[in-house]
Design brief:
Pfam family, one: DUF6968
Number of strands: 9
Organism: Polyangium fumosum
Protein name: DUF6968 domain-containing protein
Mean pLDDT: 87
Largest sheet: 4 strands, antiparallel
InterPro entries: DUF6968 (IPR054241)
Low-confidence stretches: none
Helix content: 10-25%
Shape: globular
Length: about 110
């Protein structure tokens, strides 16, 4: 992902998602970290299976970005949703119009 500084320059924002794992109580967890300038660590999503935990994790990552000072300045492939699930509305927003089509090589 990339975020735009006030002066218009852009910098990478790294999202590191850990592999989902199951706890002794049969609850699945999936954690993530967001790099500088947010420096968010130790947050996890929970679910009844690995996929639900992963989607919850990604939704919490999106909420973390939208609740930060970077709200409205982070994008991935031209999408300000970064392709991450929206926990409030329960959607994954993929704005295909914002994504550049691949170049034809031949």
């Amino acid at each position: 992902m990339t975020y735009r500084h006030d002066d218009g320059t852009e910098q990478d924002l790294h999202l590191h998602v850990r592999m989902p794992y199951v706890t002794k109580g049969a609850v699945w967890k999936c954690g993530f970290e967001l790099g500088p300038p947010l420096n968010i660590t130790g947050r996890e999503g929970y679910g009844v299976d690995a996929l639900q935990a992963l989607l919850a994790c990604l939704g919490i990552a999106r909420a973390s970005i939208e609740g930060s000072t970077l709200k409205g300045r982070v994008h991935w492939g031209g999408m300000f949703s970064c392709g991450l699930p929206d926990l409030v509305n329960g959607r994954i927003e993929l704005d295909a119009a914002a994504v550049e089509p691949p170049q034809n090589s031949g």
